[in-house]
Amino acid sequence: MTESDLPVVQLTPGRWGDPAQTVEVPEAALAALKHLGVRRRGVVEGKEEPGAPDASAGAAEPGAARAVKPGSAREVKPGSAREVEPGSARAVERLAELLGSEWVSVDGDVRWAHTRGYSTPDLLRFRAGDTTGMPAAVVFPGSHEDVLAVLAACSELGVAVVPYAGGTSVVGGLAPDGEFVAVDLRRLDQVGELDEISRTVRLGAGLRGTAAEAALKPMGYTLGHFPQSYEGASIGGYAATRSSGQSSAGYGRFDQMVVGMTVATPRGTVELGRAPMSAAGPDLRQLWLGSEGALGIITSVVVRIRPRPAERFFEGWRFGSFAQGLDAIRRLAQDGPLPTVLRLSDEAETAVNLADPEVLGGASGVQAIVGFEGTATAVRRAAVAEVLADAGGEPLGEEAGETWRKGRYRAPYLRDPLLDEGALVETLETAGFWSKLPELKAAVTDALVKSLGDQGTPPLVLCHVSHVYETGASLYFTVVCAQAEDPVAQWRQAKTAASTAIGAAGGTITHHHGVGTDHRDAYAAEIGPLAIESLQAVKRVVDPENILSPGILLPEA
Ligand SMILES: Cc1cc2nc3c(=O)[nH]c(=O)nc-3n(C[C@H](O)[C@H](O)[C@H](O)COP(=O)(O)OP(=O)(O)OC[C@H]3O[C@@H](n4cnc5c(N)ncnc54)[C@H](O)[C@@H]3O)c2cc1C
């Protein structure tokens, strides 16, 4: 089974993944959680705490503190907890005239399903019935012209809009400051004509990643873009956040795949990408890629595609330490050859993720995953093996690689059951130059350990590298600890400490999750006031009434 065989599923709001699949926390993990002091909320030594929220209660009134029965999140009905404001009510009327009333919804369930995204704080707020970040209405435009009409009308009425693609943002990218209308792009799901000679195709912004692969498969092509949110995210979201998938070493980041795009703004259309490369001024595609809705709504992109791989081979390698493994993958990134997937776990992640310690031959150390797709994989494999062995690596064989490949989308499914168990689980990512990477990793780990330790919830911090470049790489951290009384505030404190450490150690605030509202201040500090003012100036031109995702990506001018 490959990615293009995965079904297009409707995610359950507030709970990750295909609702048809259930995941249970392994017994060994439950035992390990106890060492971190994790216990189900409201349970003291096997007894329910008096007055504790009933974890099996299911739907509750919005705003009321309650836990949601696993799998029941879909039933939560916040109804009209927040009445639609008069400004938005006028917009709803106008938008219904423009699109037809069936494409404009103020239904409580629909608005609730478009409330925030899938970060851990988002899931916790969802469980608590917190309606902040809930849109006043949701519109479903069916064409680029519809989007232009929506933006023009909202601009005239001064009503904020936020584009919604797959809804998998983990950085607060769907919850702007104040009242807003969500623009759900799911009807923009066209697969345009294939240019087989240039190997490009136009894809609608609302097309899900899984649907894009399913459409390209019979034509013999693939995008090769497989983020861990692949089951939920859409083409427009990939472009708007400069997403990076697990095969980035072979296929590149999503922003490297986009060769053209059509953008709707309140002032009209921007069409970019007349040629693959150009010296005609700055590359404005890069201005809209990563703009997270603040500069317009991308309605379609033209992407580079590749032939579906004839062969696939994944294997594991062992290194004595993370430092040794880092040196090995740097050699591949700098001098080649590069495999399609290149991933290195640190000691902690290797220990936790390997169900079978025998995979490492009973030895300690760290595991790397190396994957090859395409043709003549045996030749590339042999050349990569030579470099890795020379750097001190030992091959672990195909089973370790296949285990990772088959389980690559499973990890996020564990987060909700872990939250049910009373654990706080969240991830964060950064990137830096090779020379700074060890220092960056240590600084972020120390900051998380100190912040959460000081709060009485010592964490386990796991880290891996999964995106490499000639000059540096990304670092991806997973944090697990016991939930404190207010887990949202608990994580906010830890995340602030980690963000400060990233800034001080010379890393970027995000390698692929984007900025949203969560990283807005750190992003402003990272690029400086003049760069922020330059972006705000562009925003004023395309969005004079400041209706596009206010407060997302950019601070208000
Ligand atoms: C479990 C999990 C795993 C993840 N793994 C990865 C990973 O491996 N790699 C990775 O890169 N990311 C990952 N993410 C983050 C997220 O999936 C990506 O940011 C993804 O690109 C978002 O796509 P989406 O379609 O869900 O966008 P949405 O969440 O709908 O939108 C994201 C942002 O872009 C804006 N936006 C959406 N569509 C448009 C448009 N057409 N025009 C302009 N602005 C728009 C939105 O307003 C929002 O600010 C993960 C998230 C989760 C929950």
TrEMBL record:
* Domain FAD-binding PCMH-type span(s) in chain numbering: 131-308
Biased region (Basic and acidic residues) positions are 72-88
Spans annotated as Disordered: 1-20, 43-88
- Looking at the keywords, is 4Fe-4S present? no
* Signal sequence residues: none
- Keywords, in A-Z order: FAD, Flavoprotein
Q: Which family does it belong to?
A: Belongs to the FAD-binding oxidoreductase/transferase type 4 family.
Q: What is this protein called?
A: FAD-binding oxidoreductase
Organism this protein belongs to: Kribbella lupini
